[in-house]
Amino acid sequence: MTQEETVLQASLRRGLILSLVIFTACVVAEERDVFLILMEGEPVAFHRGQATTEGEEEGRKLDFHSEVSKAYAKQLVDSHDKILNSTLEEGSYTKLYSFKHIVNGFAVHTSPSQVKKIKGAMGVKVVERDRRAKTMTSYTPKFLGLPEGVWTQEGGETNAGEGIVIGFIDTGINPFHPSFAYDPVNPFASNLSHFSGACEEGPRFPGSSCNGKIVSARFFSAGAQAVATLNASVDFLSPFDAVGHGSHVASTAAGNCGVPVVVNGCYYGQASGMAPRARIAVYKAIYPSLGTLADVVAAIDQATQDGVDILTLSVGPDEPPEDTITFLGVFDIFMLSANKAGVFVVQAAGNHGPNTYSVVSYSPWAVGVASCSTDRSYPASLILGDGQKVGGVGLSGPTFGDGLLTYKLVLAKDAVKADGTFPRTPQYTEECQYPEALDPLIVQGSVVICNFSEGFYNGTSSVTAIVDTARVLGFMGFLLLANPSYGDFIAEPIPFPVPGMMIPRTSDSKVILQYYEQNVCRDKRGVVTKYGGRAAICDGRIASYMGRAPVVNRFSSRGPDFIDHDRNPTDVLKPDISAPGHQIWAAWSPMSVMEPILFGNNFALLSGTSMATPHIAGIAALIKQNNPSWMPSMIASAMSTTASKCDNNGDPIMAEGSDLYSLYTATPFDFGAGLVYPSRALDPGLVFSSGYEDYINFLCSLPNTDPATIKIATGGSCINPFSNPSDLNIPSVTISAANGSRLVRRRVKNVMNKTETYLCAAQEPKGVTVKLNPSWFTVAPEGSQDLEIELNVTQKMDDFQFGEIVLTGNLNHIVRIPLSIYPVST
Fold first, then answer.
1. pLDDT in tens, 64-120
2. Angle 403-542-141 (CA atoms, 0-180°, nearest 5)?
3. CATH code reported for the domain at 134-376+547-687
4. Where are the domains of the chain?
5. CA 607 to chain centre
6. Which residues are catalytic?
7. Which of 121-125, 203-207, 294-298, 731-735 is predicted least confidently?
8. How many whole angstroms separate alpha carbon 555 and alpha carbon 354?
9. Mind listing the pLDDT tens digit for each residue in 504-526?
10. pTM for this entry
11. Between 2.60.40.2310, 1.20.120.450, 3.40.50.1110, 3.40.50.720, what CATH number should domain 732-825 receive?
């Protein structure tokens, strides 16, 4: 072989080796993700001989801490490790969690090619890619009648919620906030023997944070750390809340009573939780950088083991599962297991309204909450130099003189520097995002008009930047005007540290701009030579209580509920109920890493179904305190059947529509059963109850599902499936495809200590007749009554139609059951 041939062969070998290295690198570099794996075999809570066994009362508190339970838990963890070790390649995965308390399974960080091997492994039931999780983002106790109603019945504010533990899976908590302080002068009466949490210390969260009001605090980060590099300056590996959302939610449900709300030196009244004497258990699972479903379900598993009574989920996946029906996604299976263990689970319905089929709460075993307004608002007003008054939105103090003195009015476009040293884009020229773009000699001491233009429309501009510009350049105040090119926009009151207003309607913007142009002088080039317009911003921090309320908020997700990713409707009413979620004052974290404009504040005024959800959690705590033996479904029923469908004017509740500032008559797909009415919920007369076996029978009756699928996902057997899903014993009737005649069955239980007689009546949906059997009945204390509801389609309709059944008792109990029927054929 010649020397040249030897060199050539060596080069070819190196090339082959290099190619193999590159190929191997491509395989190794396959992108990993988090996957949730559910296994055959019972978890600790439902393992025979460990806790609840067949025939025992469902929902009673479980003993997770016995030696037998601990041994079985270790056995499950070992089985998880064994299947991973025997199935996947060494170094190709990281196990993040073993779920063992209420669900048997684990979370693993690995590649799609590796997870395919798990799918075929013996004992594996469900494999689901992590869908990520996110947040769904005072006066309300009085609006809901708590101080003079339920609190009085519970022994006053110093006892309301006593002995109940509410768990919060969220962004953590600010332990230094007065809403969560412990008052040694007023010690708690209950020792919480049913609860056994722990206090995990870490950055900004010393061990003393668990003070008796906060009885437990944990954090879950394995999922988040697996898929992202966390920012140590904000993503604290402790229960501390750097965002504010978790603190807001916790204080709304269970914050101390009568905490002064002070923001930017202004006093806005006092904040109180719905159940101010309930205890708080914190489970941080969402971080500023991201949240994963793995961390959320691990928190659900732990919270149930700890013994929480109520579980609040203002977080969760924001879309349905892709490869299974909505009810059998991993998130919903965990909620089903928590419900089976006796925990009342409440979740946000979502913030994708007003679109139909937009709810992210699907299952009948968790209460999905819609958001509505209260009658409180914070109107702001602008006074122009000619005396015209224009309304707007802005939670700020007035310009100096509180409307009696006016100041030079300047359009930002007219104050732009002419030196051309910055881009001529809307952010610089009209949106007031960059102080270096404006001439300080023109804008200082003036009321400056900023324009809602391209940057606000695409999300690159912010009101925070306007505030910063106003501070740097010394604006007397600012206005953010709607732009006719983009139309009206939605504005929520924000506590501005400088005088400011948002003018969200283009009709009002035109009034201001017309006045402005009539009072400026321009040269031939269009440059302003004299500013003649004047304006003053009035105080926008004074509350008004004159509005129609409640009104379902535009952002609140709507039904109907659906069974799959294609959004085919199903026979369950969602949302379940509505509660105040608009402009809610509650605790905040001064770090406020996701909302810079709220930095330094201890309170925030927020809107979202996240804010509505803890209202229901707190009210559920009050009901649980009064009825400690009630199953979760009974608590849900009490709130549903007593909810109000009328507003403060006595008219039907309205809902905000797709056209901004438009209203229409709300339906059960907007507000569920209606607005929660706490004092009535405490004394519902009758309740509908369902337990784990009922939910399995419901699943087994769904169309196009087979018993094997249900068994694989839940472990439950299809022994006695319902004739139709609509036979699940819940306090509503929804039929997504009514053909001819349908017989629906319900059973009510008298939870009064007196015998009561009820008269049955129905408001019929259009195109449907409703016959009730019996038409009246008498039921003894703790007695039950079966009801048959015969529905007959008389006219085919092109959409759902609504009505209700009303059971009126002779002891003044009124039980309402919403009807949502789609008549498809006679």
1. 777 888 899 999 999 999 999 999 988 899 999 999 999 999 999 999 999 899 988
2. 175
3. 3.40.50.200
4. 16-129, 134-376+547-687, 379-537, 690-720, 732-825
5. 10
6. 170, 245, 610
7. 121-125
8. 6
9. 999 999 999 999 999 999 999 99
10. 0.90
11. 2.60.40.2310
